[in-house]
Amino acid sequence: MKLLGDWLESNSRKSGSRIILAADVGGPLETRLERAASLVSAVKERVVAVKVNWHLLLPYGVLGLRGFVERCGEAGLPVIADMKLNDIGATNVEAAEILFSNGFDALIANPFVGYKEGMEDLLEKSREMRKGVIMLVYMSHAGSKDGYGLKVGGEPLYLGFARKTRSWGADGAVVSSKSPSIIREVRSILGKEQVILSPGVGFQGGDGRRALTAGADYLIIGRSIIGSKDPVKTVEGLNRDLGDRGS
Ligand code: XMP
């Protein structure tokens, strides 16, 4: 099994894409999964991974999503559970084991919880299962500065989280596309093999090209694709506009 960073890189080479599809399909619960599956099937050769959030995790749960996750895997796409996991080690490990033994390839966690008896156990479990953990370093919503931007010891919290992402050996970080200067700072801290996933493009006003140029590796995009009339054309257009790493 490939490590997350290598898997994304190899998919990106094949597809020429830097997009992680946020499969945040809304509307009637009865048909959500079917619609999410159709969406993935339509764009599977044009994206590098699929991210699943509460939109699907809550109504269907891990067991209900097995077929969906399996189909993503058959299409060669890693599936990332966006839980922003934030609990004690034992609970984090339980969540990770359930997700990873049911086909999920990576999860997003919140470094705020700290290492000892928090992230340490989760990171060990993930390594043991050869799965990915991505740390939340700077979020894309307007209020992010109130938390991740708080100054602690004279520097914003996100810088400390970026250093922890590196020293803890996580697979990468989530940093908002709306803050290219922060992406640049985080990029300078992370190791070469650690990826930056950047949400907030389009719907939230972020500029994907600028984010990639600043050092993001992949863009997490949901509503701009899902809400468009023709998701395939939208993804193709985004891939074209973004070019190779926005260069
Ligand atoms: P759209 O493109 O619909 O995508 O705005 C939103 C998806 O991305 C997630 N998201 C984030 N996840 N840190 C994260 O870990 C963030 O800063 C962030 N901003 C958006 C969001 O939960 C949704 O799934």
Descriptive account of the structure:
By secondary structure, the chain is an alpha/beta fold. It has twelve helices and ten strands. The protein has helices at residues 4-15, 29-43, 54-64, 66-74, 89-100, 115-128, 144-147, 157-167, 180-189, 208-214, 223-226, 231-242, and strands spanning 19-22, 49-52, 79-85, 106-109, 132-138, 151-152, 155-156, 172-175, 195-199, 218-221. The strands form two sheets. It has an eight-stranded parallel barrel, surrounded by nine helices. It is globular. The mean pLDDT is 95. Xanthosine-5'-monophosphate is lined by residues 22, 24, 53, 82, 84, 108, 136, 139-140, 174, 176, 199-200, 202-204, 220-224. Xanthosine-5'-monophosphate binds next to strand 3, strand 10 and helix 11.
